[in-house]
Amino acid sequence: MATEIKDLHNLQNTEYSLKKLFKDAEDFLPLLGTDYVELYVGNAKQSAHFYKTAFGFQSEAYAGLETGMKDRVSYVLKQDKIRLVLTTSLKEGGVINEHINKHGDGVKVVALWVEDATKAWEETTKRGAKSFMKPTREEDKNGHVVRSGIHTYGETVHIFVERKNYNGIFLPGFKKWESHYNPEPVGLKFIDHMVGNVGWNEMNTWCEFYDKVMGFAQIISFDDSDISTEFTALMSKVMSNGNGRIKFPINEPAEGKKKSQIEEYIDFYNGAGVQHIAVATNDIVATVSAMRDRGVEFLYVPENYYDDLLERVGDIDEDVEVLKEHGILIDRDDEGYLLQLFTKPVVDRPTMFFEIIQRKGAQSFGKGNFKALFEAIEREQENRGTL
Ligand code: FE2
Fold first, then answer.
1. Dihedral sign (CA 172, 173, 178, 183)
2. Contact 117/162 with Cβ under 8 angstroms?
3. Cα(309)–Cα(327) distance, rounded to whole angstroms?
């Protein structure tokens, strides 16, 4: 633990220093970034409206009956580098409906942008990944893409997207989505990290998957002594790819006095899945106040959290009163500090939520806030009667 934290602190936030953590000099799965995140949802049209209105996403692309897709409909929304795809089924039965029935609305695909989707599939499947989609070429008048995919935790999958020979709006089969309703963006820039919740004693299995199959390295770990409260406990390890653009923390529940929030998630999601998507902003106060004005609900942070804030985190650029007003959390590590805030679940089940994060040097994940955060989540669990 101590060594890992030290490793993290020694990072210069550069590709070079992160590579020192990697055993293999050659990255067999070079990832250019997150390509898109696809959710299977009960009503894609209404979800799209929510993400436009509340989160400031822009209408980007569409596929459905009008574009020749007979069994499903997908809306693609964009904000800066973040692409969300909302998909629902148009027919009875089938894998999308089964996914929604079992999990509620949730993340199905975490798509990763690669130079070579065939090689990505070959390298990962030969290391033990279960194939979800063999390398497949899709084309239209704008060129061609190659996509391939593998399974990860639960029913979640990674799709590798090779788009260097494509200049269409999203993927073949999609058309530009023209809308007269275009709310302003709220300043969300890119996906900072995406967290997976896995079942009891499964964290190491999945960290090993990201290590062995995808060539990631563990950059940090928390055990229950770091982040447990009186009632709830969890363990977490953060896996990162070679250039640090993709970070996947993996949580598992730990034994506490009452039901942990990870266990609650697993119960309602019926298994492992994506717990939260952390999105970066350059101005968290502006982003959060815009989102709040548009109806997004954030976790309540107790006012006493701010009482000893400056003693804990030292000098910060922001006005503590303003942070307190918005319930923004602050944590510091050796490299700087970060500001973060968590939404309440954005779906009906107590499962998926978003994190808004602004990094000012810090490359960690807000360990110092976990306790305050968990206590806030426990208050919500108590309201739901699931603590
Ligand atoms: Fe997070």
1. negative
2. yes
3. 12
Q: How far is the CA of 178 from the centre of ligand 1 (A)?
A: 33
Q: Separation of 364 CA from ligand 1 center, angstroms?
A: 10
Which domains are seen in the chain, by residue range? Answer: 2-22+187-384 (3.10.180.10), 27-176 (3.10.180.10)
Closest by Cα among 228, 237, 283 to 257: 228
Lowest mean pLDDT segment, chosen from 146-160, 200-214, 257-271, 350-364 = 257-271
Q: Tell which wins on pLDDT, 142 or 229.
A: 142
pTM for the full predicted model: 0.91
Assess whether pLDDT exceeds 60 at residue 29.
yes
Task: Express each pLDDT in 97-147 by its tens digit.
Answer: 999 999 999 999 999 999 999 999 999 999 999 999 999 999 999 999 999
Residues 6 or more apart whose CB falls under 8 angstroms from that of 26 comprise none
CA of 139 relative to ligand 1 center, distance in Å: 36
**How many A from CA of 162 to the centre of ligand 1?**
27
